[in-house]
């Protein structure tokens, strides 16, 4: 089997609810890049990457040029054995992990299809039938966030990510955490996420003000060192997100004591190959994992669900059904949440099949 064609599309994904985060970051309408690798056997592998503007070192309109540079390595290559192909791409073009993420997902899709197996069978084997979801709550008025949390809880959700810092008011952030915690009662997981947007001073004031509650903090500051100071001063558990993107950063976060939980986002690490290695390291380090991605629709969601399904349930904190937050759906028959949980798609490979005609005219076709 050999890759004969690379096609890419720019697809605007519109959030059902605008998501407001610290430092003016938002998810409203965000451009996703969809990639298809066609082969001489008739099989097609699908990949997707959707960078949030101003969030991480990734740019949606940078994907096509990066793929054009990597095309000489991809065209004619046997996609079976994604890590070997990705090693060649890393030698050909250093960095650009986000652009490589879509390629890597498509390579795994093709490999699993060729084997006639669901993707999770190649990522460690299915460890669980379905997985717990968290619900991300946009940073708006505290009472509105509490209402959203109650509504999500009624659908079976037991984990709640509370966005903080959009109005730079630490006392409002305290109210957000307290009101959501009260709304969902004791037991469900509640964690406040600044997306690196807080100073250590503001994060400390919030952390100390809610230290009597069952709350976790997520990546309050832009550096591991500042996050560690907040963790040490308020005593609350902490989840690492933006600063976790490779082996060295995972080891640094663990050593600093700020990785009670960690977000393994596919595009941060460069796809499923690197994310699987990160998953295995976290199993050794003992961190709970949220396996997800920055943003996206059905292709990204399917990829992360297969990796989640192949992960030890004791270490998997949650996954994210990104496709449920946006429209259009790339594959309307893709997986959907049920009673606060979600299962990976069935069938071989990723198990999703986007409609090419529905994607519109490609941004690039490379043969």
Automatic annotation (TrEMBL):
GO terms for biological process: amino acid catabolic process. It comes from the Bacteria. The keyword DNA-binding does not apply. Residues 142-237 form the Mandelate racemase/muconate lactonizing enzyme C-terminal domain. Residues 331-367 are annotated as: Disordered. It holds the Pfam family MR_MLE_C. Gene3D superfamilies: Enolase-like C-terminal domain, Enolase-like, N-terminal domain. Its cofactor is Mg(2+). One of its GO terms (molecular function) is magnesium ion binding. Keywords: Magnesium, Metal-binding. Belongs to the mandelate racemase/muconate lactonizing enzyme family. PANTHER family: D-GALACTONATE DEHYDRATASE-RELATED, ENOLASE SUPERFAMILY MEMBER DDB_G0284701. This is Mandelate racemase. It comes from Leisingera methylohalidivorans DSM 14336.
